[in-house]
Specification:
Elements: H1 24-27, E1 30-34, H2 38-54, E2 57-61, E3 72-76, E4 99-104, E5 107-112, H3 115-128, H4 131-134, E6 138-142, E7 149-152, E8 155-160, E9 164-166, E10 177-178, E11 181-182, H5 187-199, E12 203-205, H6 213-216, H7 223-233, E13 239-243, H8 248-251, H9 263-279, E14 285-288, H10 305-316, E15 322-326, H11 346-351, E16 362-367, H12 382-385, E17 390-396, H13 412-420, H14 450-455, E18 460-463, H15 479-490, H16 496-507, H17 513-523, H18 526-533, E19 571-572, H19 592-597, H20 607-610, E20 613-614, H21 625-650, H22 659-691
Parallel strand pairs: 1-2, 1-3, 3-5, 7-12, 7-18, 12-13, 13-14, 14-15, 15-16, 16-17, 17-18
Antiparallel strand pairs: 4-5, 4-6, 8-9, 10-11, 19-20
InterPro entries: A-glucoronidase_C_sf, GH, Glyco_hydro_67_C, Glyco_hydro_67_cat, Hex-like_dom2
Domain Glycosyl hydrolase family 67 C-terminal: 473-699
Keywords: Hydrolase
């Protein structure tokens, strides 16, 4: 499923959500930019391009000069009127990224204390379009919910013989690397940085967390090229990070050990950090995957993860660097016969006992669920188990287990549900907004929600879905996930369907009204649609081993990976209760531990994650488990059939220059329907044969 080589297609990259026409409202006005700073220069260049394209005018003003009769003024503040942490900015950020927008009789002023904040303010005006100038008079302050908004690229410098150019990447080759080297032409990286900055992303890790031999050398002789990549991101306010191997002192430095308590190892890491920051002064830090899926780590020396993370933290601390230490640690060689070992428990078992021992510049990076980016999982209890540790929420924008960007699956609603989850509120957790509704982004996340826990701690991190494909993300609609991730990082309370509407309006400006409606019809509920025709009721996986695309109910059932469903003739599901199972349910604070412990109170969508039940168990919906499986898999295919018909009608309304995009979407929807049908037929047949219970509607099951 991964591209073995980089793309050689010279077709220009699609502009995604920043086509020239998206800048029309700004570009036809009189715009003044005032202030110094590298990013102010970036803003000035954007404004100059927009006004040249759309007939407006642009003035670059010196600090302290007047603004004349400009319709839009973008200015660095020079007094105490600047927005700051007390106005909603993040108190733990080294640089205030907030901005203030003032609208008076159609004239708009955007001001910020920092050039990065001013850049975000500029793109805010671009998103608003005409509404920026036609709205009522207002004074608004905008600030990110968290100062750390990061993307991890799983790109390999050298093409891996199994995982290809980008591990778990579905969008062609790497935008950074080709032919075993950093690309000579980084103009595509500059375009990418611009897209990310427009959504508020401010940090990017540029190589695979599974650090192979060639990628490890980015830390040493590859530094000049890393500096080139950092230079491409710098004008957009984005800091670069590297994934490093814990064994680097041995593989790169020739030391006999990588023991975190060895003085020579500590000295090697200090010297390595000094070299990196000497070359790249605004470098962000290191990302580490250790003692996980074969990656080396401190366990080899009888040490724990706090020992390992703190070793690197001490090396980067003089440079204000960060260590992102992934909590994705589990036994991937377990015996499938052993029901006492539960992969879901692993991160909590490894990290909860270490709370309070990590250095202040260590961020423990926790996947949103306890397994591995499934379409439906409970929220990882690790997020609430480390109150004295900086914790980041890790999401996956690339759709490894949600259709691999061959299926149209908008994940904004899933992420919104995760961010809103309240560890203490129980059934009172605010629901994710239904499509077509709005929510107030003025209400900050509660302190015990996922968003609240990570906001002033480690922020958000996600695995990127971009590659060198013409449409960046393989499926043009998957661009919406990259956009929504950045916007939810900035404002976790934002309406995810509203964010989808923003992306549509900017990506297809001026399109016929039916186009926007059709894309909403396809994407608004597409996450739930994918869930309908794949693994049911939170049980997860059931995918082809290795590449993870397409159905294979028993594909992982007798493997060492710990991803089991335990279906037999009597029932299905994993008993994770305290009373009779693995005890995973007991890792949650009340009231969730009690809710999950009982099959009577466990939410239907997670029932099989926490309980092994008979096929005739009656859900809260009133259906039996087996009838739910049949019904949802038929319904899922019917929905995708409607997707195909909806797009077939809408594509005729697209302009001629969108023909390639329209064709790509058509091809992907055709594949989605084929795959969804395969999922339906394989799962329904499997469970009919396993349970012996017929479909009450008498539909064809093979």
């Amino acid at each position: 499923m991964n591209s073995p080589t980089s793309s050689t297609d010279t077709t220009p990259a699609h502009p995604a959500w920043l086509p020239s026409s998206a800048f029309a409202a700004v570009g036809r006005r009189r715009v003044a930019v005032r202030g110094d700073g590298a990013l102010v220069g970036t803003i000035a260049a954007e404004v100059a391009g927009a006004t040249a394209a759309h007939g407006g005018s642009f003035t670059r003003l010196d600090p302290g000069s007047g603004v004349g009769d400009a319709d839009l003024v973008l200015t660095l503040t020079e007094d105490d009127d600047a927005p700051g942490p007390d106005d909603g900015g993040s108190a733990c950020d080294a640089e205030d990224e907030s901005f203030r927008l003032l609208r008076d009789d159609g004239a708009v002023v955007v001001q910020s204390a920092s050039d990065r904040g001013l850049l975000y303010g500029f793109f805010h005006v671009v998103r608003l379009g005409e509404a920026a100038f036609t709205g009522p008079d207002a004074v608004e302050t905008h600030a990110p919910a968290t100062p750390l908004r990061m993307l991890d690229h799983w790109d390999n410098v050298a093409v891996h013989d199994v995982m290809g150019q980008v591990e778990r990447g579905y969008s062609g080759g790497s935008i950074f690397y080709a032919d075993g080297e950093v690309r000579a032409d980084l103009s595509r990286v500059e375009e990418y940085a611009r897209l990310l900055a427009s959504t508020g992303i401010n940090r990017v890790a540029i190589n695979n967390v599974n650090v192979h031999a060639r990628e490890a050398r980015l830390l040493t002789d590859g530094l000049p090229d890393v500096a080139r990549i950092a230079a491409a991101f710098r004008p957009w306010g984005i800091r670069v990070h590297l994934a490093v191997s814990f064994a680097a002192p041995m593989t790169l430095g020739g030391l006999p050990t990588a023991d975190p308590l060895d003085a020579g190892v500590a000295r090697w890491w200090r010297d390595a950090a000094d070299r990196v920051w000497a070359r790249i002064p605004d470098f962000g830090g290191f990302v580490v995957k250790a003692d996980s899926e074969g990656q080396p780590g401190p366990f080899a020396y009888g040490r724990d993860h706090a020992d390992g993370a703190n070793l690197l933290a001490a090396a980067v601390e003089p440079h204000d660097g960060l260590i992102h230490w992934r909590a994705f640690v589990y036994d991937h060689r377990q015996d499938w016969r052993d029901r006492s070992t539960d992969r879901a428990r692993a991160a909590h078992d490894n990290f909860a006992p270490l709370d309070g021992r990590f250095a202040d510049n260590v961020i423990v990076q926790v996947k949103h669920g306890p397994m591995d980016f499934q379409v439906r999982e409970p929220i990882s209890p690790v997020l609430a188990a480390l109150p004295r540790t900086r914790v980041a929420l890790e999401l996956q924008v690339t759709q490894e287990y949600t259709g691999q960007q061959k299926h149209a699956v908008y994940l904004g609603r899933a992420w919104s549900e995760i961010l809103r989850f309240d560890f203490l509120a129980g059934a009172a957790t605010p629901p994710v907004p239904e499509p077509g509704t709005t929510t107030s982004s003025d209400i900050p996340p509660g302190p015990t929600t996922v968003a609240g826990l990570v906001a002033n701690s480690g922020g958000l991190v996600a695995v990127s879905n971009a590659g060198d494909d013409e449409f960046w993300t393989g499926h043009p609609f998957a661009q919406a996930n990259l956009y929504a991730y950045g916007r939810l990082c900035w404002d976790p309370a934002a309406d995810p369907v509203g964010l989808l509407g923003e992306w549509i309006a900017m990506t297809f400006p001026g399109a016929a009204p039916g186009v926007a409606g059709a894309i909403h019809e396809i994407l608004d509920d597409s996450w739930e649609t994918y869930e309908l025709y794949t693994a049911p009721l939170g049980v997860g996986f059931m995918v082809r081993p290795g590449h993870h695309y397409g159905p294979d109910v028993d594909g992982y059932e007798y493997t060492p990976w710990g991803t089991y469903h335990f279906a037999d003739r009597d029932g299905i599901g994993v008993d994770r209760t305290v009373a009779t199972g693995t005890g995973f349910a007991g890792l949650y604070p009340s009231p969730w531990r009690e809710i999950y412990e009982s099959a009577e109170t466990c939410p239907d969508e997670l029932l099989l994650f926490f309980h092994h039940v008979p096929y005739t168990h009656v859900l809260h919906s009133g259906k039996t488990v087996i009838q739910h499986i049949y019904d949802t898999h038929f319904e899922g295919v019917e929905r995708v059939e409607r997707f195909v018909a909806t797009w077939s009608e809408a594509r005729s309304s697209l302009p001629a220059d969108a023909a390639r995009l329209a064709a790509r979407v058509t091809d992907r929807l055709t594949e989605q329907l084929r795959s969804a049908t395969d999922w339906r037929d394989q799962l329904n047949t499997y469970f009919l044969r396993k349970s012996g219970v017929p479909d009450t509607h008498g539909r064809t099951i093979h």
